[in-house]
Amino acid sequence: MQTPILSDRAFHAHKARGVIYTVLSALLFGVTPVLASWTFDMGSNANTLTFYRNLLAVPVLAVIMLVKHIPFGLSRKELGLLLVVGVGFRATTTFMLYQSYAYIPVGTATTLHFFYPMATALLCLVVFRERLCGAKIVALVLACVGVAMFAEKADGNALPGLLLALASAVTYACYLTGMDKTSLRQMNGTKVACYMGLFNALAVLAVDQVPHQIVFALPPLAMLYTFIIAICTSFFAYWLLQRGIQVLGAPTAAIFCLFEPIGSVVSGALFLNERMNLRSMIGCVCVLGAVLITVLYDRRAKSDI
Fold it and tell me: What's the pLDDT score for residue 301?
């Protein structure tokens, strides 16, 4: 009689860890733009930050692999998946999102990008025939409404930026789904992060051969901030996100990733003196409501088994 109780507790503890992993990942991604803003004031730019954000994490991850005796070898299948999911989806997401900033306000671009939970759920529905229950649909819609509260108005010449930001939402949904539905889910997280960081940095460097926008010699303080961003995003936040996806699955993890705009709003108010207006507060409430619906549904689904 005691085994089901222990099993149920273990299940909830397992799910809770997945939620914590994903929320912490989202908050790290949400806070680092403050440091990014400071580096831009010191001469950095989007291409430079994207390049170093991936590259600087590689030596740290490589050392960890050596210490933990994680093999560096890759099969052809693993190499192909890392290139497709990493460079094809993850690096492309960052590139298109940063490029959209040239046409529309950052707030509008970020808002459109954070419609990726709906894209993730629809992708799993269409490609993998996963069912979407009513509660999950309500949570996704509520989350999208919450994200829309962060939006700013774009001018009439914003179509390229709008398309780029929306495309970044689709590619990020493909990235999340790829991490969930391929053998990358079973690969060692440190190994995946190391190779993705290396391949993405090389991809950014290759693309930059035409515009030559990467600034290789930044001031020491800017390099320090960039290094912190790299470790927080390409190492800690990425590792936490992968663990969260392993526990929760891509559609549910995508909802908890929406803590990122909340983290951005709060950190902007604290460190950049940005005002948190009524729209932002309503957006936070809607996102938290979506998270609550998801948690309650998962608990009910388990109790019905």
Answer: 64
